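Quick start: what a row looks like.
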Amino acid sequence: MHGPDERASFGLLGEIQQRGPVADVSEMPDRRVEPVSACLTLDEVRELLDADVCAGTDLSLRIERVGAADLMSDVLAFGRPGMLLLTGLNTSHTVRTAAVADLAGIVLVRGKQPSDEMVALARQHSVPLLTTRLTMFEAAGRLYVALKAR
């Protein structure tokens, strides 16, 4: 186990490497990836992920970026306007974060179902909300492959 002032990372082969005391975020490498120059429509995303639409009617919306996170602080820090968010966090806070960050929509993974409050809030803020039984890894992989193929 690592102490509260230590952090770990995965090396190239997946083994955990000790990184020492946590200093500040500026020492961490920038892991943002520039968007692929292609896009998918929300309807194509729905088909690729075998997803159900819980809120949102404009499935022609173009998706150029996809991000995956369960921490909304990460979404606020690293998300970009127009990004589709893959997440397992099915709370109204997710919709509020998507609205503030001007995200293109939300896909709940691992079969998570939104509450009535979450659906109502998504409709109120015009944030498309979908749900899929796929894991976050599988959903992200399918979307990555589809975007790279274009």
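That is the whole record. The CA atoms of residues 5 and 23 lie 9 Å apart. Residues 1-28 have pLDDT under 50 and may be disordered.
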